[in-house]
Amino acid sequence: MVSSSAQAVAAADDSQPGDAAGDAADGRKPDGKGAGFTGTYRLLVRGKNINGNTLLATDYLNHFNEIIMLLEMIPSMPECYEDAITWQPKSYADHFRDSCFSDAELAILAYENAPQNYRQAFDATIEQMDRLVLEALPRIKALVEAGEEGPLQAGILGVTRKLQSFVDVASSIINGNMDTLDQAQIDKVMNG
Question: Which residues contact 143 (CB under 8 A, 6 or more apart)?
């Protein structure tokens, strides 16, 4: 069991070149990202709330579930906009550093060593979600200030549905059910 990031790195450093721990013959990722010990981290995350194939954790999605919940409260409690406006994008590592997740350090290291196909699709999805929230908040403010409940509800529903669709996509990536996010998929969510 790994109880610290130092132990995880030490465990990763014990792997031999060319063994199942790495992605390349020298045990390092070909693109130079992360330590390159995907196989080792797959062993370390067994029994944890981190997917053993993708090396990603659904706990990160709580950051987005929080803003969805706040936005959904605004039509009945417009003062919740003040809480929503404080929401800011948060990196995967920062989320886990700030969380009470029991395996936070391992989650960060596993993410850094996640297979690139999953990591790239995941990061692209998160980028879309961050952008969606940041662009929606000023529009929601205008709707709150206008004081018309119907347009406010409709505007928030449109945003939260898109966000939830992206959360579903991110969850599918985390769980290894998809490993790409192309422009057609983004357009489908944004126009859906």
Answer: 151, 152, 155, 156
